[in-house]
Amino acid sequence: MENKEKQVIDSEAADQILKQYIVVRFNKEQFGISINYIQNIVRMTSITRVPNVPDYIKGVINLRGEIIPIMSLRIKLDLEPDEITNQTRIIIVNVDDKLVGLFVDEVMEVLILEDEQIEKQTKEGTDKKSKYISGVGKLEDRLISLFNVEQIIAD
Questions:
Q1: Beta-carbon neighbour count of residue 74 at 10 Å?
Q2: Cα–Cα distance between 21 and 140 in angstroms, integer?
Q3: pLDDT, mean of residues 27-36
Q4: Are 49 and 69 in contact (CB under 8 A)?
Q5: Nearest to residue 101, comparing CAs of 76, 122, 124?
Q6: Which domains does the chain possess?
């Protein structure tokens, strides 16, 4: 029995130490989205416009019978407008049982970061982007801003 308890503790410790992120790109900037929120990644598809919504809501899509609102992270972060290319993807995230699609320029890779590779966001920045960043992942010569998905969807 002592061995089983040790295995449970070891797996819990591993969950806390290693965190997986999907790395996405906007222009030349890289951002990480925790894999815990990601429901699906889909290619660009036809989006139905919806009247009287904030400008960062581009419309809705029908994905296997589910109507999912699509959000432009570029507009939400005060970046230049979206450019739709062959690499453009919609990342479907699930926050509190609500599905939302996020436009990204490109999905690059799945990345595993350890706790010591993540520097938590400690001070409030003045730009909109810093409000939605929970930390920065440091990997060799790369810095990857880690999105606070719950904050993005809540606003």
A1: 18
A2: 16
A3: 90
A4: no
A5: 76
A6: 20-154 (2.40.50.180)
**72-99 tens-digit pLDDT:** 988 888 888 888 889 999 999 999 999 9
Structure-block tokens of residue 89: 């993807």
Count H helices, E strands: the chain?
A: 4, 11
Q: In whole angstroms, what is the distance from residue 30 CA to residue 101 CA? A: 18
Contact (Cβ atoms closer than 8 angstroms) between residue 93 and residue 32: no
Any alpha helices (H) in 18-114, and if so which ranges? 73-76
**Amino acid type, 72:** S
Contacts of 77 (CB under 8 A, 6+ apart): 26, 128, 129, 132
Contact 38, 92 (CB under 8 A): yes
